[in-house]
Amino acid sequence: MKRQLRMTAFHVRQFVSVPYFIQLMVMTTTATTLVQFLAASAWGGITPMQGWVRGGVVGMWTTTTCAAGIIGFERYKGTLVHLILAPVGALRSLAAVVCAAASFGLAAFPVAWCTWALLSASVSFTGPGWEVWARLVVGALMLLAGCVALSLVIAALFVLTPNAIQYEGLLLVPVFVASGIVFTSAAPPAWLAAASRFLPLSVPFELLLGRVTSVAALGGWLVCTAAWLGVSSFLGRRALRLATRAGTLEVV
């Protein structure tokens, strides 16, 4: 586990060395937070925390969708073949590359908070109580786990097409709607709330907003996240077979 974390940290540094990824996270997060602030100023209905949390979630998921083309990007750089032949195993090395996108997405939360604070001209360094901070930290880590699980599936699916990076934008809105992220002041429809339980993003989002989350919901989130990780493992091994045995998936 420690070695996997070190590899992920290395690839996060490689990820942020590309200006496009930083601009994507910062611009998406600030733009979403700005829209939230303007809406709250005009119509109300949300608290400041709900506003910047939603901005952070949108920025984080937008960055996570880069996983759709990240393996293709490694192929373009000429490093994919070395990742496939890594001594630690191809799946572990590629997982570290994919996880870098979601891990860097955590930076969207402080960016969203700073954006809201500057817009409202009310920066408080005392902050909320430790209970709120603990809830935010746990919710962010759960959201990271959910984004990692989804990004691994996305990467394994989109590695089969050379135009994966063009499809990243298509993953944004459907996941937002299906996970219930677009609903803050009002509850989502019953059918959508039931469908959102099949995505590992809805429960962390509710926890970040301070909504009551039952033990059953947390257990369901664990099962859901484990299921997505299982699917990603199956798809990753299939893609690896295509690359190393069938020879139908190019690595150079």
Question: What does this protein structure show overall?
Answer:
The structure is a single chain. The protein is mostly helical. The protein is built from twelve helices and no strands. It has helices at residues 2-16, 19-43, 48-64, 67-77, 80-84, 90-105, 108-120, 130-158, 172-179, 190-196, 202-209, 215-246. Helix 2 packs antiparallel against helix 3 and helix 3 packs antiparallel against helix 7 (108-120). The two termini are 29 Å apart. The model has no long low-confidence stretch (mean pLDDT 81).
Which key phrases capture this entry?
252 residues; mainly alpha; 74% helix; globular
Instruction: Tell how many strands the DSSP assignment holds.
Output: 0
State the helicity in percent bands.
Answer: over 70%
Average pLDDT rating: 81
Q: What low-confidence regions span 5 or more consecutive residues with pLDDT below 50?
A: none
**End-to-end CA span:** 29 Å
SSE blueprint and pairings:
Layout: H1 2-16, H2 19-43, H3 48-64, H4 67-77, H5 80-84, H6 90-105, H7 108-120, H8 130-158, H9 172-179, H10 190-196, H11 202-209, H12 215-246
Helix pairs in contact: 1-6, 2-3, 2-7, 3-6, 3-7, 3-8, 4-8, 6-8, 8-11, 8-12
